[in-house]
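Incident log, support desk, overnight shift.

02:14 A customer reports that sequence design results differ from what the structure should imply. Their input is reproduced verbatim below. On-call engineer (initials T.W.) acknowledged and began investigating.
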């Protein structure tokens, strides 16, 4: 599980969050490539695209808080994407869960579990953090996850 000590800079927290989003994007993209049901493939591809948008928002946040920002490629070179939101290894997550993705409802329920865990993680770290700028970044990330949960709920409602 990832650990925030409390002395991270906003840029470090953004980089950590970016890595979690990247890990989840990789998981969804790999799952989509392996899934058989076209509806499941479509929803997994959509979930991967949502993670791309989350990464874009994080990069924009990085640009807003970093006085000497790097370009996107240099920023991404320093990112560790060995974990997904929820603190899982993407490869192990894929191995353990792909067989359960028999329907779009299964995929959406699984995604909601991951997003709820991510929101909880960001909220807990925000509560522990003393740096107000870092706390604000973590709360912003929790709000992003909350919005993602709502979108997933809407998708489930349409199923």
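02:41 Re-run completed on a clean worker. Output:
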């Amino acid at each position: 599980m990832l650990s925030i000590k409390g002395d991270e800079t906003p840029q470090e927290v953004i980089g950590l969050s970016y890595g979690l989003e990247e890990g989840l994007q990789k998981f969804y993209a790999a799952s989509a490539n392996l899934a058989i049901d076209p509806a499941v493939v479509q929803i997994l591809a959509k979930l991967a695209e949502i993670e791309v948008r989350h990464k874009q928002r994080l990069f924009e946040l990085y640009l807003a808080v970093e006085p000497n920002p790097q370009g996107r490629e240099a920023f991404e070179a320093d990112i560790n994407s060995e974990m997904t939101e929820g603190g899982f290894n993407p490869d192990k997550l894929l191995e353990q869960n792909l067989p359960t993705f028999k329907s779009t409802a299964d995929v959406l329920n699984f995604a909601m579990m991951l997003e709820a865990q991510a929101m909880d993680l960001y909220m807990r770290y925000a509560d522990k953090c003393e740096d107000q700028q870092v706390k604000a970044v973590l709360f912003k990330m929790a709000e992003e996850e909350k919005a993602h949960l709502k979108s997933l709920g809407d998708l489930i409602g349409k199923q």
